[in-house]
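Researcher: Structure for this, please.
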Amino acid sequence: MSGKSGIVILGIFAADTAYKAKRLPHIAETLMGSGFTLGPGGKGSNQAIAAAKAGGTVTFISRVGNDPFGEMALAAYAAAGVKANVMKMDGVSSGAAFIFVDEASGDNAIIVAPGAAGLIGLDDVDANRVEIESAAIFMTQLEQPLEAAIHGLSMAKRAGVTTIFNPAPARALPDSIYGLCDFIVPNEVEAAELAGHAIDTDDQARAAAQTLLDRGARAVIITLGARGAFYHTAGQSEFVPAFSAGNVVDTTGAGDAFLGGFATAVSEGYAPIEAVRFGCATAAIAVTRPGTAPAMPSRAEIDALLR
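Model: Predicted structure, token format:
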């Protein structure tokens, strides 16, 4: 990573519309909710804001509509100190997400409509070639088209940039993508889908991680919610426990908080297992607050929890 600096993230913005209730409604049923929030979201966007607030130098590549949600996105990046290489498009809406938050547990279920960001393509990656190739870290996910993610990972890998791939939401992947991943970071649901078996035990997590390693990834990190995270390479296999930073209010965006913190730590030269600890601390603080991007903690808060 010598001579390279900063984090470039390719992903989508979606305005998060979050509804808190006892349960999801059935078809044709109306339920009264106990809360509503509107704020910036989208996996890539959340990760960019989390990384910037954690102390990273971040460029975010995306598309938004020329609409109020698009303005919300650009204002959020300005506030967090994210460089926004974001195309504004006429005639197509910005992305949006429906988020159900269980009022008892804080657990969530999400529907995402990517809108303008669903049109991200190879051209968006090519237009940012200089920034990608000079970065320390390139990170992407699967809310934008898979082809764009693969193109970005390939470009970064050829340039010697450390690549982080968050295979979310889960979907079938070509085997060729694994060799482009210095770090592949699924959650337990995504890892189970990729590996083809449940991840209810530590042994199952280890077996799933080994499967992804065998397909070509250099390192696998499975985020396990309240159980922490599991880091696995050819020479090291370690569970990192979750931190407690207070009562859990909303787990939406916890994985994005982890990834933003992890990417920042790796970009600063932390050893991978210490970067996993940094990511766990970032997520632990985020889940004590409502929302996604607005819940991301500052560097001072993360450092204080790690101490």
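Researcher: Any notable elements?
Model: The CA atoms of residues 213 and 304 lie 34 Å apart. The mean pLDDT is 95.
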